[in-house]
Amino acid sequence: MQHSRLIANQELQPIPDRRNWPIWPWALLGIFALIDGLWLLATPIALDANAVGTIFSLMPLVVAALLGAKRFEDNDAIYVVCTGLAFILVAWPTLRLFNHLSMTTALPWADATLSQLDSMIRFDWHAYIRWLDGQRWLLSIMNWTYTGLNGYSIFFFLLLALFPDRRAACFEFIALFVVSASLCMTLGMFFPAQAAMVYYAPDLAGFQHVHDSLGTYHISSLNMLREAPAPVLELDSLPGLVTFPSFHTAMGVVLIYACRRSLFLLVPSLGINLSMIAATPLYGSHYGIDILGGIVAALATIAIIRHLERRASDATDWVSQLGFARLKAPAA
């Protein structure tokens, strides 16, 4: 009888949202890894001798991060940091390798096409870099924001892990990253281009701060992939090779979107990423159409992730309607 009264006095409480992250981003990486492996097997392209060591040095870190996520599954902060770290460690070599392999095709250079599209949208690349040359203070900021994308992306991810809705926010960040990178690299393989700085080859004799080495750090790797009969890839040194659409631009937009939950994050994210996007024509040697393409790729990514989130939310609501609840004992 006393036991019955105890049960009657207990109140039903919803089960806390402790859902683990969906598996689909890992599956997407698996697809790219499979493509990488098949591409290497089917072509004369090879990885250098240090690549195996690099991969094996990453594996213990990935395993340790995943074990940490499993061990501290109920600690939101530790869970999202460990899972995010494991994902990034796998995504970095997988996606960069695909980017380089995809540039070994015999597709013609797209620079002329991209330049024509710039004319259509009335973007004057020469006039823009000429104006930037007179903004020394702005060039210093742009140099930092463009080259520091990887570092401050991870920094913002770690800041998101400090907020109450960290599981949703950090997973969204990871999902936005992998989908935007996948879109840009897949589209980019059909538009191989050298660089605006190389295609236009401007006379920089009268410039003070702009020089022809800006935005051309990738040219030697790109030419080697297209000209060498048996390219050898150094996994430790794989610069980004996508021209259209601009991945820097896409990542800048999704970073701003990912930080929308907090004014504390949104304000610096806006400043840093808008500066970085503005820097892409010079420091990334991008055409104007590349930036527009990056924005479209980012918006498409956001639409995809929002659609997937709605589907996941609908599934959760359906499960909750089944009446699953946790019994909470009353206070003594």
From TrEMBL:
<keyword id="KW-1133">Transmembrane helix</keyword>
<feature type="transmembrane region" description="Helical">
    <location>
        <begin position="289"/>
        <end position="308"/>
    </location>
</feature>
<feature type="transmembrane region" description="Helical">
    <location>
        <begin position="76"/>
        <end position="95"/>
    </location>
</feature>
<dbReference type="GO" id="GO:0016020">
    <property type="term" value="C:membrane"/>
</dbReference>
<feature type="transmembrane region" description="Helical">
    <location>
        <begin position="21"/>
        <end position="45"/>
    </location>
</feature>
<feature type="transmembrane region" description="Helical">
    <location>
        <begin position="170"/>
        <end position="191"/>
    </location>
</feature>
<feature type="transmembrane region" description="Helical">
    <location>
        <begin position="51"/>
        <end position="69"/>
    </location>
</feature>
<protein>
    <submittedName>
        <fullName>PAP2 superfamily protein</fullName>
    </submittedName>
</protein>
<feature type="transmembrane region" description="Helical">
    <location>
        <begin position="263"/>
        <end position="283"/>
    </location>
</feature>
<feature type="transmembrane region" description="Helical">
    <location>
        <begin position="238"/>
        <end position="258"/>
    </location>
</feature>
<keyword id="KW-0812">Transmembrane</keyword>
<dbReference type="InterPro" id="IPR026841">
    <property type="entry name" value="Aur1/Ipt1"/>
</dbReference>
<feature type="transmembrane region" description="Helical">
    <location>
        <begin position="141"/>
        <end position="163"/>
    </location>
</feature>
<dbReference type="Pfam" id="PF14378">
    <property type="entry name" value="PAP2_3"/>
</dbReference>
<feature type="domain" description="Inositolphosphotransferase Aur1/Ipt1">
    <location>
        <begin position="113"/>
        <end position="303"/>
    </location>
</feature>
<keyword id="KW-0472">Membrane</keyword>
